[in-house]
Amino acid sequence: MDTILREPTTVGEMLSEEFLKPLNITQAKLGEALNLSRPRIAEIINGKRRISIEEAVMLAALFETDSDFWINVQTSHDRWEARQLMAQKTSVKPITALLAR
């Protein structure tokens, strides 16, 4: 199993630092371009909401990137979150322990 020592970049961080700031695009303009509400964009930027496959495709079209790029950024962060949750779920035992009873 691979080990990730730090939290991966979120889609929101990537959007903000690599696309919005350099291109001087506001969250409001991004929402307008993607036909998404300003609150939804803010949640994505602030790491409170993950992006959907459809949103990944829209971001790819808007910024002339590949949808896999956005999907991979999201998936990398999702995998990290899953590992964090698994580390906290010590009360859940493997199925083999349950079947051995």
Automatic annotation (TrEMBL):
Stretches assigned to the HTH cro/C1-type domain: 23-70
Any GO molecular function: DNA binding
Pfam families per UniProt: HTH_3 (PF01381)
Keywords for the protein's UniProt record, in alphabetical order: DNA-binding
InterPro entries noted in UniProt: Cro/C1-type_HTH, Lambda_DNA-bd_dom_sf, Toxin_antidote_HigA
Keyword NADP attached: no
SMART domains: HTH_XRE (SM00530)
Recorded superkingdom: Bacteria
Positions in coiled-coil regions: none
Alphabetical list of NCBIfam families matching this protein: antidote_HigA (TIGR02607)
Protein name (database record): Addiction module antitoxin
Species: Xenorhabdus khoisanae
